[in-house]
Amino acid sequence: MTDKAQTPERSLPVVQGGVEVPRALKPPVKPEALRHRNFRDDEFWKQIPAYREIDEATFLDHRWQAKKSITKPAKLLDAVQDLVSDAFIEDVKEGFAHAPMSVRVSPYMLSLIDWKDPYNDPIRRQFIPVGSSLLPDHPKLDLDSLHEQADAPTPGLTHRYPDKALFLALDTCPVYCRFCTRSYAVGIDTEEVEKVSLKANSQRWERAFAYIASRPELEDIVISGGDAYNLRAEHIAHIGNRLLEMPNIQRMRFASKGPAVMPQKLLTDDAWFSALAGVVERGRKLHKEVVLHTHFNHPNELTAISKRAMDRCFSAGITVRNQSVLQRGVNDCPDVMQLLIKRLSYVNVQAYYVYMHDLVKGVEELRTTLDDALEIEKQVRGLTAGFNTPTFVVDAPGGGGKRDAHSFEHYNRETGVSVFRSPNVCPDALYLYFDPIDRLSDAGKARWADPAEHDSIIEEAKQAARERLR
Predict the structure, then answer these.
(1) What 8-state DSSP symbol labels residue 439?
(2) What is the bridge-based pairing of β-strands 289-294 and 251-255?
(3) Of 22, 276, 310, 386, which alpha carbon lies 20 to 30 A from 3's?
(4) How far apart are CA 125 and CA 302, in angstroms?
């Protein structure tokens, strides 16, 4: 006779829609596994003293967002008032004084910063510099590190890859990111950088269009800047339709940080949204792909307002892809990157690329190592569907273009030098990326501290790559 005390109890079957649910092979998920579905949906902007009386309709008005954007320390102080100390404001002033990038932050972004801990907030770090965190630039830094101007047959048009060109239609943005690789042109002159002018100009555009039409191998055009968000509705329609009418062009991408930093425009600027949707629809009828590329870096940037904006894009048939930049103290840990990718997927935004931070003047404290990228990539791979899993890439300094982060020919972790090839750009060239010096070992730091060692460091890395390629 069986001892009932030793017989395990059998749980009652679970019935769903009249069907018994098969016994699960995996344990129940914990609530935090679904946190990517939780979007901030409160009147968060009212934490900012200057916005306490602002109603939702006003906050959602893209014109108000643009008009009230922060461009100077004095405006920042007026907005946040007693939320920060005088010492913090002085630190910001020092940061602004040494910033190569103009500063412009939307009220939306300003409101999402945790002002109880501004020094560690991932959004503050991206947009508002503080002098106390600045590090010396890497000695191999070049203001135009990607050599976009060297690959430009006419100002504002970069032709590097065989079938793709980058069209910089203008040189302004709805916000200015500290880490922008185009600090050589974007925004107004600063104390650190005198900018190259790429104003929205029909004559400059016509030269770019003429070149594109003359090159039958060109099929793919990225419309960027600056930021396509700052183009007028008629400009979106004009550029989009001119390119669609070229027989050689099959694909185009409007590139914009806007959906991440000012999603209100997608909800309240009907003329602009209709212009984009119109180009997308016309492209579809011509069997040509037109998509929107955007730039979310941290899950805190995705709110209920963002979801509404992305839902509108999805309903209109606009494909949205995301390109993040890996930044220290922002998204350089697996947990944050996993949450970002899952949250993007939930609002139908494809996580397309995660870039290694380019060598940009004045923001060395935001860069991290190639090793960090390789480890984070392992942690996100398999988290969700492959088409929503980003490729981690190095945009190779010197004009090598985007290279898979794993594809280096050599990586010296002591000196932080990684070597890449780009056969479709220049088969014989070697392109070097440099980890931030403050993240190296003491031995690596010591070598870089001696300028006489720099050439040797580089030649050693190149030679090791050449030996591997034999």
Answers:
(1) G
(2) parallel
(3) 22
(4) 17
Architecture of domain 157-406: Alpha-Beta Barrel (3.20)
Q: How far out from the chain centre does Cα 240 lie? A: 23
Residues of the chain with pLDDT under 50: 1-5, 7-9, 189, 195
Tell me the pLDDT tens digit for each residue of 359-412: 988 899 999 999 999 999 999 999 999 999 999 999 998 889 999 999 999 999
- Asked if residue 296 lies in contact with residue 309, where contact means CB atoms within 8 angstroms, the answer is no
pLDDT at residue 183, as a whole number = 62
The answer for residues whose C-beta is within 8 angstroms of residue 37's C-beta and 6 or more apart is: 346
Size of the chain in residues: 470
CA gap 186, 117 in Å, rounded: 29
CATH 3.20.20.70 residue ranges in the chain?
A: 157-406
- How does pLDDT run across 403-422, given as a tens digit for each residue? 999 999 999 999 999 999 99
Structure tokens at 231: 């183009």
Q: How many CB atoms lie within 10 A of CB 344?
A: 27
> Phi then psi for 156, rounded to 5 degrees?
85, 10
Q: Would you state the pLDDT for residue 304? A: 98
What would the two tokens of residue 346 be? 């939930």
**E strands of 185-226, at which residues?**
220-224
| Torsion angle of the four alpha carbons 382, 383, 389, 391, in this order, in degrees rounded to the nearest 10 | -60
Element of type H or E holding 312: helix 304-315
Inter-residue contact 38 to 303 (CB < 8 Å)? no
Question: According to the model, what pLDDT value does residue 192 have?
Answer: 52
On the 0-12 / 13-18 / 19+ scale of CB atoms within 10 A, 449 is exposed
Distance between CA atoms of residues 423 and 290, nearest Å: 28
**Beta carbons of 300 and 91 less than 8 angstroms apart:** no
* Separation between Cα atoms, residue 407 and residue 397, nearest integer Å: 15
